[in-house]
Amino acid sequence: MPTRNLVLVLGDQLSPRLSSLTTADPSHDTILMVEVEEEATYVRHHKKKIAFLFSAMRHFDKKLRSNGWNVEYVRINSRDNTGSFTSEVARTVERLKPDRVLVTEPGEWRVLNEVNTWSDRLDLPVDVLEDDRFLCSRTEFADWAMDRKQLRMEYFYREMRRKTSLLMDGDKPEGGRWNFDSENRKPSRTDLLIPSPAMFKPDAITKDVLKLVDERFGDHFGDLTPFWFAVKSEQADQALVHFLETALPLFGDYQDAMLKNERFLYHSVISHYINAGLLDPLYVCQSVEAAYRAGRAPLNAAEGFIRQIIGWREYVRGIYWLKMPDYLRENFFEAERSLPTFYWTAKTEMACVRAAVTQTKEEAYAHHIQRLMVTGNFAMLAGVRPQDVHEWYLAVYADAYEWVELPNTLGMSQFADGGLLGSKPYAASGNYINKMSDYCKSCRYDVKKKAGDDACPFNPLYWDFLVRNENKLRGNPRLAQVYRAWDHMSQDRKAAYLESAGRFLGDLD
Ligand SMILES: Cc1cc2nc3c(=O)[nH]c(=O)nc-3n(C[C@H](O)[C@H](O)[C@H](O)COP(=O)(O)OP(=O)(O)OC[C@H]3O[C@@H](n4cnc5c(N)ncnc54)[C@H](O)[C@@H]3O)c2cc1C
Ligand code: SF4
After folding, report:
1. Which H or E element spans position 486?
2. Spatial separation of the C-alpha atoms in residues 291 and 63, rounded to whole Å
3. By alpha-carbon position, which residue is closest to atom 3 of ligand 2?
4. Contact 432, 352 (CB under 8 A)
5. Among candidate residues 339, 312, 333, the one with its CA nearest the CA of residue 396
6. How many degrees, rounded to 5, is the angle at CA 275 between CA 271 and CA 277?
7. Distances (CA, A) of 63 to 12, 41, 290
């Protein structure tokens, strides 16, 4: 039977209820899925990330076929694979001669731009459908943002709570408050019984993919094995249930904590499943609410978790589409240093950075506070070019796609947008890391020392950063107290800070 619609399903669109699939009809339409070289290499993604996506795509292909779909699946090592979406769609159009192409809007600006050229290039209608797996459409976000002086996540989040009815008590927030964050800042404790995320044994499909990735992308960053990620939605569901049962109750309390020997703490480790389409974000939040309503998790945990998804996740996506493509070039502090090599090798004496990079290399995962307050904080204090930092985060994490990674990196962690996402930079000295983790105990640097060769580098770098960017930051009311503290410091102390920072940065170069 001739193909009516050619439906392109991208690697992060592995959801049966995807708008392009619910619009299409298995009896007339053909699905196209392609493992694209260009996508795997435009930044050199972590080996585990590539393996996760290719394996999840192959499992999704199998599922679609068993549901009666006609699927054209092009493997990366197929002799005919031409290596880009555009050329693969063109090749399939040439062969199947469909009436039109259907695609759910891609998550990344770069890919959407490419898709927007297809209609002319192929001389065929191309329908780009909204991605309704997100709760807030791009237009809805733009409407919300219009005429607002500040785009604060907290206000957006309240709208999303009302819209989804999650944790609502009539028109009031459950528990009388929108946000229980003040209860979610407990420092780490080494005597806690900490669960690990659900882990899955590679099946035959995954084993094939692991071999392929090893052969083809062996020189990319990161360890390929042990590989324990879920690669199909049934497994991702199990991972969610496991999180609800073992970690959710303490998710809130220890959300900001870090421990040297505990990589996952009470985090869910499901962002890569949600972002690839294996888990539905609303369903995840509803499951968390159900656990709270059944008395299996406290409100601070459930609210804190749901805020990350219907608040932060939706909000950063809105910002991305609102501000692209200019957002990519933002560099508020005009930072120009290259990313230090230890972001790839973990060869640094800073125990906190070493732990975060080592775990990133081994797991393609680090939790939020490691990303924000260790590797992100260090890069900002050291004056690393935000675009270098962005490329690193995009490459090394299994959950990284530009729509979510870029605002988190450039905006939240580097303050490169000058304060669109946050009201002040997330800059911190070693004191914060010491309070929230046990890293400092085994570090060659002394977190209590403020300057000198043995001083924790975060201490002098913190002041150096504030002095270096004084003209941009002194007017910020949230930093007034910090600058007052600097003003009251003795000249000797100021000089010692700046000299230590200068020496450390000199060695870094
Ligand atoms: C510099 C930097 C880069 C980041 N890059 C990414 C990225 O590429 N992809 C990504 O999904 N997240 C990114 N984040 C956000 C966050 O760190 C990860 O979502 C989280 O660590 C994933 O682990 P988890 O599933 O255990 O999350 P949990 O701590 O269990 O949180 C639950 C869920 O909330 C969502 N979430 C939490 N925080 C955020 C956030 N700030 N933005 C969007 N969603 C959030 C995720 O879906 C996550 O699975 C980044 C944060 C920073 C500071
Ligand atoms: S002393 Fe400083 S560098 Fe060392 S672990 Fe603590 S914060 Fe990190």
Report:
1. helix 480-487
2. 29
3. 350
4. no
5. 339
6. 120
7. 15, 27, 29
Residue nearest to atom 1 of ligand 2 (CA): 447
- Identity at 29, one-letter amino acid code: D
* Matching residue, tokens 């946000």: 179
- Residue entry with tokens 């001739």: 2
Retrieve residue 252's tokens.
Answer: 């809130």
Q: How far is the CA of 34 from the centre of ligand 1 (A)?
A: 27
Structure-token pair, residue 105 = 């809007």
Of 281, 289, 287, 288, residue with least CA distance to 317: 281
Q: How many CB atoms lie within 10 A of CB 224?
A: 19
What are 362's strand-pairing partners?
none
> b vs e for 436-454, b when ≥16 Cβ sit within 10 Å of the residue's Cβ?
bbbbbeebebebeebbeee
Which residue has the CA at smallest separation from atom 7 of ligand 2? 430
Q: Which of 443, 450, 453, 461 to mutate for ligand 2's pocket (most ligand atoms within 8 Å of CB)?
A: 443
Distance, CA 463 to ligand 2 centroid (Å)? 16
CA distance 22 to 411: 35
Phi-psi category of residue 419: left, alpha or beta, with phi > 0 → left and psi -120 to 50 → alpha: left
- Return the number of other C-beta atoms located less than 10 Å from residue 143's C-beta: 11
Q: Which two tokens stand for residue 211?
A: 């071999």
Other C-beta atoms lying within 10 Å of the C-beta of residue 183: 16
CB atoms within 10 A of CB 48: 29
In single-letter form, the type of residue at position 57 comes to: M
Query: For residue 502, how many C-alpha atoms fall within 13 Å in the half-sphere facing its CB?
Result: 8
For 488, other C-beta atoms within 10 Å of its C-beta total: 8
Q: Do residues 85 and 34 make contact, with C-beta atoms less than 8 angstroms apart?
A: yes
Provide the whole-model pTM.
0.97
List pLDDT tens digits, range 47-105: 999 999 999 999 999 999 999 999 999 999 999 999 899 999 999 999 999 999 999 99
d(CA 303, CA 167): 7
Q: What is the largest CA-CA distance in the chain?
A: 83
Place of tokens 């230890």: 342
Give SS3 for 103.
strand
Helix axes 47-66, 204-217, angle to 10 degrees: 140
Residues whose CB is less than 8 angstroms from the CB of residue 301 and which lie 6 or more positions away in sequence, other chains included: 248, 249, 250, 251, 252, 253, 292
For 363-389, write each residue's pLDDT tens digit.
999 999 999 999 999 999 999 999 999
SS3 state of residue 102: strand
Backbone angles phi, psi at 33, to 5 degrees: -125, 135
